[in-house]
Design goal:
By secondary structure, this protein is an all-alpha fold. The protein has helices at residues 2-9, 14-26, 30-38, 41-51, 54-68, 72-80, 84-93. The protein is globular, with a radius of gyration of 12 Å. 28% of the residues are buried. ARM repeats lie at residues 1-41.
Length: 96
């Protein structure tokens, strides 16, 4: 899982978008969600909100939702990673 999370953190690479799609598919599996979070996935996704296009940011938000929807622990991690401010900003400027 770590190489996938690392790809997402790299900016300007074609593989980054593909890694996000793979992450999205894996995030539907409970065991994979745990592995994504353990490998720093929440932190990487919060950082990605800052640098992506609006469409990319919205995709990142969907991934965060997948990781946090059923987990109080992951939601707490999102708050600790200062993920709320970027989400609020996106809610005010996003297209969704």
């Amino acid at each position: 899982m770590k190489p996938l999370v690392d790809l997402i953190s790299e900016q300007g690479r074609d593989l980054t978008e593909k890694a996000m799609v793979v992450l999205s598919s894996l995030a539907t599996i409970p065991e994979a969600r745990i592995a994504i979070v353990e490998e720093g996935g929440v932190t990487v996704l919060v950082e990605a909100i800052e640098v992506r296009s609006v469409k990319g940011k919205e995709f990142v938000v969907l991934k965060l939702l997948q990781l946090c929807a059923d987990s109080v622990r992951n939601r707490g991690l999102l708050v600790r990673e200062v993920g709320i401010s970027p989400l609020v900003a996106l809610s005010q400027t996003g297209t969704a």
